[in-house]
Write a structure and sequence with these properties.
Layout lengths: L1 H12 L45 E3 L7 H9 L4 E4 L5 H17 L3 E4 L4 E5 L14 E2 L1
Parallel strand pairs: 1-2
Antiparallel strand pairs: 2-4, 3-4, 3-5
Length: 140
């Protein structure tokens, strides 16, 4: 009986001549041309990124606390390089200011270059810093 039930299942699942003919014929679509060689797709041209041009100015800031972060972050966001002179800031605040400056630079794809232990240069992504001495500048 199990063999009989299995045979009925196979008969139902198999493709059998059931008297119906498919209404779809490949020949119906033989004359349709899906690719029209004469028509081209609209293509958006690639435009070069506007160059940063020559740097007209560099801002120097002497932050004393993290509260002065907006003083250098806003000009930097506009693409202006900023020199951070942290000689007037306490040691604890220097680390916080530098962390904030590095976050701003990272978010805008720029760099922080160490000039000395207390002076850092924030450069936007379109600005490169070249050194003329044999030692490489420290970039974070």
């Amino acid at each position: 009986m199990a063999k009989n039930a299995f045979q009925r299942l196979v008969n139902k699942a198999s493709i059998a001549e059931d008297g119906y003919e498919d209404e779809y014929y490949e020949d119906d679509f033989a004359d349709v041309d899906y690719f029209d060689d004469e028509q081209e797709a609209d293509v958006t041209p690639i435009r070069p990124v506007a160059s940063g041009g020559d740097i007209a100015r560099i801002i120097t800031v002497w932050p004393k606390s993290i509260d002065g972060g907006q003083e250098f972050a806003d000009p930097y966001r506009k693409g202006i390089p900023v020199i951070l002179n942290m000689t007037a800031a306490p040691d604890q605040e220097r680390r916080r200011i530098l962390d904030f400056a590095m976050g701003v630079c990272y978010g805008l794809r720029g760099k922080v270059n160490k000039i000395s232990n207390d002076v850092f240069l924030m450069t936007p992504h379109q600005v490169t810093v070249e050194t003329s001495h044999s030692e490489e500048s420290s970039a974070f």
